[in-house]
Specification:
about 325 residues, alpha/beta, Rossmann fold, UDP-galactose 4-epimerase, domain 1, 2 domains, three-stranded mixed beta sheet, 10 helices
């Protein structure tokens, strides 16, 4: 990616910290914005001495410096969000405020600027809901998310598309599969590692274990984000473009449990399936089957280095290594 000024919202989070790291490595000057509600200083501690990084503690729900921060940047990577799908069942307001309101405030700050901006938005596969077409392409419809998280991300997509069209900015919407790897703080692998550490004899698994989804290693995710952004910025692509980013296969929750148990040297652990809700889902709003079509992404010349199982194995090793380092 060519050298430019980039703003990364949620830059101290899981995906955001990796994107920030990659942009700095490529020579970009980065303004990292985070309110540290879920982002961690430890995720970016190794970057803080980089003179090309500017760290700003700012809450997008009630911003005070946002206009000035956006003004000095060419590309805005909007990664700030509450990523926990399950919270929507008990506290849907969190997804409204952390995702929709935060995005609206960011777009309002961009609206007042004269110069055009490029907005790169991290959306999600959950906007498709229970898709009847698998693999699911970008032009699939109607989009009927089954979680408030998916609904909030779809609302953000619509806001971004409308602001770009109305106020002459450009938007790149990226619908991500399940992203895994080091610095992750939630998700199935993190949950399994925690549960096995607490009880090495029995692993309780939400749902019936047949949930079957695509998983994407964080290195592939970031490489795809940077590749697509570079292509979008330097092309005459539409005002708003949408890409799926995922792997070309799926892996079941039971298979993930077996991989994690093997990596933790507990191959004989007993699995207990909760049965879940709504025909074996882990929780309300859990999309049971997900595989994104990445044909559009592949046509750009980029493809993932890892399939879902390889990504799960690598991410498990990396997360266990992180856990050991924290204990030392």
């Amino acid at each position: 990616m060519k050298t430019c000024n980039s703003l990364v919202t949620g830059g101290a989070g899981f995906i955001g910290s990796h994107v920030t790291e990659s942009l700095l490595r490529l020579g970009s000057r980065v303004v990292l914005l985070d309110n540290f509600s879920s982002g961690k200083k430890e995720n970016i501690s190794h970057l803080l001495t980089n003179p090309s990084l500017k760290l700003v503690r700012e809450d997008l729900k009630k911003p005070s410096m946002l206009y000035d921060l956006v003004k000095e940047c060419d590309v805005v990577f909007h990664l700030a969000a509450n990523p926990e799908v399950r919270v929507g069942e008990t506290s849907p307001r969190i997804h409204f405020e952390e995702n929709i309101l935060a995005t609206f405030n960011l777009l309002e700050s961009i609206r007042h600027l004269k110069q055009p901006k490029t907005i790169v938005f991290a959306s999600t596969s959950t906007v498709y809901g229970d898709a009847k077409q698998i693999p699911t392409p970008e032009n699939y419809g109607p989009l009927e998310p089954i979680s408030t998280y998916g609904a909030s991300k779809l609302a953000c997509e619509a806001l971004i598309a409308s602001y770009c069209s109305t106020f002459n900015h450009r938007g790149l919407i990226l619908r991500l599969a399940n992203v895994i790897g080091p610095r992750a703080r939630h998700g199935v692998i993190v949950d399994f590692i925690r549960k096995i550490s607490e009880n090495p004899n029995q692993l309780n698994i939400l749902g019936d274990g047949t949930q079957n989804k695509s998983y994407l290693h964080i290195n592939d995710c970031v490489e795809a984000i940077v590749s697509l952004t570079n292509r979008f910025v330097n092309s005459k692509a539409p005002t708003v473009d949408v890409f799926n980013i995922g792997s070309e296969d799926q892996v079941t929750v039971k298979e993930i449990a077996e991989i994690v148990a093997q990596k933790m040297d507990k191959p004989d652990i007993r699995y207990v399936f909760t049965g879940g809700v709504d025909s074996g889902r882990g929780w309300k709003g859990d999309v049971k089957y997900m595989k994104l079509s990445i044909d559009k992404l592949l046509k750009t010349g980029w493809k993932p280095h890892y399939n879902s199982r390889e990504a799960v194995r690598l991410a498990t090793t990396e997360l266990l290594h992180e856990l050991i380092n924290k204990q030392d």
